[in-house]
What we know:
56% of the residues lie in helices and 9% in strands. The protein has 7 helices and 4 strands. A hairpin with a 2-residue loop joins strand 3 (55-58) and strand 4. 36% of the residues are buried.
Amino acid sequence: MIVVHHLNNSRSQRILWLLEELGLAYEIQHYKRDPKTSLAPPELLRVHPLGKSPVITEDGLTLAESGANVEYLVERHGKGALVPPAGSPERLRYTYWLHFAEGSAMPPLVMKLVFNRIEHAPMPFFARPIARGIAQKVRNAMIDPNLARIVEHIETELGREGWFAGAEFSAADIQMSFPVEAAAARAGGRDKPHIARFLERIHARPAYQRALERGGKLAILS
């Protein structure tokens, strides 16, 4: 049996969605973020040394990382579903976006979240102007320009055929869903028509809705 070690409001929601799309049986081990820090609980350290989610276990295997989870489940259980044919241009696009999600998109989105929190965190009055000034400079000089390019890149790609790997929905769309949701919340992505349409389409998928029912409502931190 596949077990998903699922942290609320996290990227592991994508793995539940993928399993629903593939029609596979699975169990969920739920974990809750610390309400003050939003960090994962220490119980996840018993599953994987990094103590993060998603992690899946199956037949003695323990596998972390969203992209690795997606590739493993599609290759082992997908029977050709949700992946373009090998050697096709769509397959290359599929591979690119599968890795772009965590390699290029999520780091600046996480940095945006962190520096937003620094700017608005409670602190001694004498330190507040310094901390906020540093946070604003980092955001303005590095994070926001990088995110603007990423959002435009995503918008342009979705404007081609509607999905990341071509005209057909694939696991790359599942993998990219979390950074697109985060970009909508933190980087103006909701104002882009193709991004807005992509989010509307994925939210309407029955498998997406079933995953939310089992995993809990997804609230992207802004």
